[in-house]
Amino acid sequence: MTRPPPSLRAQKQAVPHAFDRVAARYDLLTGMNPGYHKHLGRSAERMRMPEDADLLDLCCGTGLSTLALVRTYPRARITGLDASVGMLDLARKKRELTGVRFLQGDAMDPAAYGASGPFDGILMAYGIRNMPDPDLCLRRLLPLLKPGGVVCFHEYSVRDSLRAHLMWNAVCLGIIIPAGLVTSPGSNIYRYLRRSVNAFDGTAAFQRRLQAAGFCDTQSATMDGWQEGIVHTFLARRPA
């Protein structure tokens, strides 16, 4: 599997601190993205979890992906984990998330921070791309699932499509990065976002990465709107 260049790996290590700096305005910027919340809900629905499932939301941030799980599976027992203190502080203040157990910790090893499972399902939205060692992360996630449990990655992937690649970079340069400079001056997180998406696996390569980590029944489906071919739901199972 391809590894990111050293400079990008160093930026991945700094992501939690970078998100601390932009936490207060993060929801404002994502709210400007047409389809952002709807697409998180679509990935949650695609997991097809039982109503009373035990679910883990990795890299939960300010709780937007957690909200998608709560609204899709209102009877589920949900744990949210994130490395950013600032993002978690905002998640804990959201009224709809009062029943969620939030943990501060590194998604590279959730069990070390109290998220040991076993879970019926794990959602990681916009997170696997930021892991310093995604293969090690995937191998550690597998035993956190119950046999037959589902892992879902809601993630950007543009390497397989020239159209998607061009659209992504046009939106980043024309909208996301300028908006980030206005809402979060001094932060490089949105420039990093562009680079990290460009460097991430194509859809086929990421499914092979999942299979190499021991997952089965891998599949992917994209979103609609301007993010068609750019944002995808990746699903896989722990073998029964």
Task: Explain what the structure shows.
With 240 residues, the chain is of the alpha/beta class. It is built from nine helices and seven strands. It has helices at residues 6-13, 15-31, 36-46, 64-72, 85-92, 134-141, 162-183, 189-199, 203-212; strands at residues 54-58, 77-82, 101-104, 119-125, 145-156, 216-222, 231-237. It has a seven-stranded mixed beta sheet with strand order 3-2-1-4-5-7-6, with helices on both faces. Strand 2, helix 5 (85-92) and strand 3 form a beta-alpha-beta unit. Helix 2 (15-31) packs across helix 5 (85-92), helix 2 crosses helix 7 and helix 3 packs across helix 4 (64-72). The longest helix has 22 residues, at 162-183. It is globular and about 45 Å long. It starts with 5 loop residues before the first helix and ends with a strand. The relative contact order is 0.16. The model has no long low-confidence stretch (mean pLDDT 90).
Briefly, what is this?
The chain is α/β, with parallel strands linked by helices.
End-to-end gap = 26 Å
Determine the fraction of residues in helical runs and give it as a percent range.
40-55%
Task: Note poorly predicted spans.
Answer: none
The gyration radius over C-alpha positions equals 16 Å
What percent strand? 15-25%
Biggest β-sheet description: 7 strands, mixed
Structural class, by secondary structure, is alpha/beta
Number of strands: 7
Contiguous helical run count: 9
What shape does the CA trace take? globular
| Mean pLDDT metric | 90
Order of helices and strands: HHHEHEHEEHEHHHEE
Write out the strand line-up for the largest beta sheet, numbering strands in chain order: 3-2-1-4-5-7-6
